[in-house]
Design brief:
With 282 residues, the chain is mostly helical. Helices cover 71% and strands 3% of the residues.
Length: 282
């Protein structure tokens, strides 16, 4: 999360809940569709080991930090970050809509989306493009992991999030760089409905917008989707508890006397895990 000048905190939270819930809901929908496809084809979902996932994440993080700290050509850095952002958006949307659309329409849709994001990206367009991408990626990864493995990932990345924001602070540095170049890997939450029409270039660190990182949404979504084979009811319970974690994190944020960037994942992860434990009891 980034510090906004919150004049209407509960209105902001209302928008945040809608966008967060939409991400989880679309992710569940995509997960159900993907699960159905695997059942029809009588093939198991592809599996990803914990070590593979952590290796790729560590490699990507180190690579980004090297670009941020040692690459001094500002224009080239901007092109790089924008390219990474569009690649992530394109891949996630391609995966999500590919569950329903034929290849021709899918290709046209993704190309059109990228063109619009390049020409005149509004907050509305940015948020919806990212939400569909998160839903696609979360659904794919969710069916590739066991719930127990996702719990471990939530614990690891909650600790990482805390250290990266409060200790090394490299997460803040990365966020500032990506915001400065219009490549925001997070949901941008405004304070009024009309602000959804604002251009992405108006988003500034410490400005009037709140940013919820994509990772703060996709990790609980992975857990939610991983439970689909055990029943949609279990998934909905964990999704509800993830929303409670979002609420808890927001309360912590607005209660601070000096609102500085804070890690949003730990409270969301904690409540998601509580929700998972509840499904085990039930």
């Amino acid at each position: 999360m980034k510090e906004p000048s919150l004049l209407y905190p509960w209105r902001v939270f209302g928008f945040e809940v809608v966008l967060f819930s939409l991400s989880l809901g679309l992710g569940i929908l995509a997960g159900l569709r993907l699960h159905e496809i695997f059942k029809i084809q009588k093939v198991p979902p592809p599996s990803i080991s914990l070590s593979q996932f952590l290796f790729y994440f560590l490699f990507a993080t180190i690579f980004l930090l090297l670009i941020i700290y040692f690459f001094k050509f500002k224009r080239g850095k901007g092109i790089f970050f924008k390219g990474i952002f569009l690649l992530a958006i394109g891949f996630g949307n391609f995966f999500f809509f590919g569950l329903w659309l034929p290849d021709v329409f899918l290709f046209i849709l993704v190309v059109l989306l990228i063109v619009l994001l390049l020409r005149r990206p509004s907050l509305m367009l940015h948020n919806f493009a990212l939400i569909f991408a998160i839903a696609g990626v979360g659904a794919g990864l969710g069916l590739s992991f066991t719930p127990e493995m996702v719990i471990l990932l939530l614990l690891i990345f909650s600790i990482y999030d805390f250290i990266a924001v409060y200790k090394t602070k490299h997460m803040i540095k990365m966020a500032k760089e990506m915001i400065a170049h219009g490549a925001i890997l997070g949901i941008v939450v405004p304070q009024t409905i009309s602000d959804f029409q604002s251009q992405l270039k108006e988003v500034r660190v410490g400005g009037k917008f709140l940013v919820l990182g994509a990772g703060d949404i996709v990790f609980p979504l992975i857990l939610v989707v991983s439970l689909i084979p055990q029943g949609i009811f279990n998934s909905l319970i964990v999704a509800s508890f993830a929303l409670l974690g979002l609420f808890a994190g927001f309360l912590i944020f607005i209660s601070k006397k000096i609102r500085t960037p804070m890690p949003a994942l730990p409270p969301i992860a904690l409540f998601s895990i509580i929700g998972y434990l509840l499904t085990r009891i039930i």
